[in-house]
Inverse folding.
């Protein structure tokens, strides 16, 4: 094999192998990013549907208790009357009711044949003997799917299915059938004959176990999206590979011609001259060429090593996706190394304010507050120009600065800036390298923000924006333990909107939602930063007051009562007035009181306020 051919193979290999490795790595990372985005959307949709189901369970339990207290139901149980022909109260949508005596004789209705969860209230006589049971069933079927449609939303093409006994029994796209490969959490599965990406949430069920809420995303749609992204990367890589191969062959040809010419001249010198001076000069020239080739090969090896190190840092950046602070530092370190800069910084963009705020700076960028301010407005200076145009900006004087915007699907997320390169100026290759890193940084930052949204939704009530019941209990446990340890008071206010059912029945549930939102807004406006307002369930709210005794809690409750009663609520073209609430106040810790005792005391005071005529504040006497 001729030297020219060997040299061509070496140069082509040096150019193509790293390019192919980068293409494979980028393709794998794009696939993982697409799958992660779909999984996050599935998790958010499943959490929203599960929240709706939990609200249905709470309503079923409350309705069972309400029925058990109804006079007609009491008479039917107590006097042995004939079975009821109808219920005295309207059954909520998606539920069914069965009244059964203690001896098993039905009074009204019967349990549903489909999977369901049962909420039960027990009816006893004055002696405490069980007379019968009031069972309210939440049917796990198409009625529940309708509740999902009314109370939550999810992005296309995600669908929601209810799964029991290994079968999809109802879904938003009416697909039912066998389910396989399903497990808790996110993974691949088959639902009703369709391969999907699925997220399964185990839900409580009385009649059939286990039962799941499953959000699905078609594998075919996911595969098409991944293939589309790969194609967009593959075509430029192929074109670049062809250019590199052509350049390598051209360079090999030029080098081969030069060496052939040199060899010819050396042969001519040997044949035509006997003196040693010319041969000595030729040898020195050959030694110089060899030394230069060795230096070039060393530079190429160093460049490959730097490229591998950049790829490794790039992998670490994506691994830190869910920790935004670690992500910012990893992206900034990688950017500085990729451009061989001595310093740099990273800013995140606030779309509402139209400005980017610095998150981290390293190296020689520290202390440069005059030319690199902490806050940069779009269009202001070199960095502001990059924010406004969504294009890289570079300046070599008076100081070398390279600013590249971080984008995700044309949405501006931030800016990464490198300063003071080791070569004295930034090259076009530095701009390209930093732009490529910024693209992947955009993917990682978006994933981190989406993860934060999912975490926030898990502890937030979707209608009111307040903490949900789960978050309330977690904070109550911490604050109660702190109060016991340091001997400080902690108070709890429970409030319930008066005659809320009348509002729902007369004006509709959307009006009821407007009232709930207004009461929640009043709580958020009045309480302190250290306090916690939560939606406790239905039309009931809780306010936790650390470092507050009963007197301060009672004063705050009275203020809230006044604010709620005075507030008018805009609903469409109507204005709802006269909304009031009753309040129960309790404080602790005292003696061997637990946090459950604190809730019970506040709850008892709340019901006392209801009995005293509503729109009233009652303080528990346990303090």
């Amino acid at each position: 094999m001729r030297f020219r051919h060997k040299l061509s193979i070496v140069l082509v290999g040096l150019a193509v192998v790293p390019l192919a490795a980068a293409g494979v790595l980028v393709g794998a990372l794009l696939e993982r990013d697409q799958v992660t985005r779909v999984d996050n959307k599935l998790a958010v949709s499943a959490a929203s549907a599960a929240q709706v189901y939990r609200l249905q369970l709470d309503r079923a339990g409350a309705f069972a208790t309400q029925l058990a207290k109804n006079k007609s139901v009491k008479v039917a149980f107590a006097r042995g009357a004939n079975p009821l022909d109808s219920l005295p109260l309207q059954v909520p949508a998606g539920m069914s009711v069965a009244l059964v005596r203690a001896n098993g004789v039905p009074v009204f209705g019967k349990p549903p044949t489909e999977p369901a969860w049962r909420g039960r209230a027990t009816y006893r006589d004055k002696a405490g003997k069980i007379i019968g049971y009031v069972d309210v069933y939440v049917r796990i079927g198409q009625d529940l799917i309708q509740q999902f449609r009314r109370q939550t939303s999810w992005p296309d093409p995600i669908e929601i299915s209810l799964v029991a006994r290994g079968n999809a029994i109802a879904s938003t796209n009416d697909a039912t059938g066998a389910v396989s490969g399903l497990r808790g959490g996110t993974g691949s599965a088959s639902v009703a004959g369709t391969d999907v990406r699925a997220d399964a949430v185990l839900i409580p069920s009385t009649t059939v176990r286990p039962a799941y809420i499953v959000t699905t995303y078609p594998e075919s749609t996911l595969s098409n999206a991944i293939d589309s992204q790969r194609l967009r990367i593959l075509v430029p890589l192929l074109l670049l590979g062809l250019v590199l191969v052509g350049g390598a062959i051209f360079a090999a040809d030029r080098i081969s011609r030069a060496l052939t010419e040199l060899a010819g001249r050396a042969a001519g010198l040997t044949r035509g001259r006997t003196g040693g001076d010319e041969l000595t000069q030729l040898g020195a020239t050959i030694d110089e060429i060899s030394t230069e080739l060795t230096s070039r090969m060393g530079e190429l090896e160093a460049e490959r090593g730097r490229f591998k190190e950049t790829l490794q840092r790039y992998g670490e950046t994506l691994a830190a996706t869910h920790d935004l602070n670690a992500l910012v530092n990893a992206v900034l370190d990688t950017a500085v190394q990729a451009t061989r800069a001595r310093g740099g910084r990273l800013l995140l963009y606030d779309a509402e304010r139209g400005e980017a705020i610095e998150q981290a700076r390293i190296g020689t960028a520290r202390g440069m507050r005059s030319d690199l301010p902490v806050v940069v407005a779009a269009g202001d200076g070199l960095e502001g120009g990059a924010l406004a145009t969504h294009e890289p900006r570079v300046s070599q004087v008076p100081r070398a600065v390279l600013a590249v915007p971080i984008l995700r699907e044309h949405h501006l997320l931030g800016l990464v800036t490198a300063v003071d390169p080791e070569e004295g100026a930034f090259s076009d290759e530095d701009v390209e390298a930093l732009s490529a890193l910024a693209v992947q940084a955009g993917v990682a930052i978006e994933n981190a923000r989406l993860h934060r949204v999912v975490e926030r939704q898990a502890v937030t009530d979707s209608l009111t924006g307040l903490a949900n019941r789960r978050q309330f209990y977690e904070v109550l446990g911490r604050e109660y333990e702190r109060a016991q340890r340091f001997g400080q008071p902690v108070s709890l206010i429970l409030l319930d909107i008066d005659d809320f059912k009348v509002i729902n029945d007369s004006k509709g549930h959307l009006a009821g939602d407007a009232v709930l939102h207004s009461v929640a807004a009043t709580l958020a406006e009045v309480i302190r930063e250290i306090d916690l307002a939560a939606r406790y369930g239905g039309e009931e709210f809780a306010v936790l007051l650390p470092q507050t005794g009963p007197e301060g809690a009672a004063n705050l409750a009275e203020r809230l009562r006044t604010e709620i009663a005075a507030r008018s609520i805009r609903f469409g073209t109507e204005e709802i007035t006269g909304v009031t609430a009753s309040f129960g106040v309790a404080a602790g810790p005292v003696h061997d009181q637990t946090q459950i005792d604190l809730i019970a005391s506040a709850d008892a005071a709340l019901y006392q306020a209801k009995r005293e005529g509503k729109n009233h504040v009652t303080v528990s006497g346990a303090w």
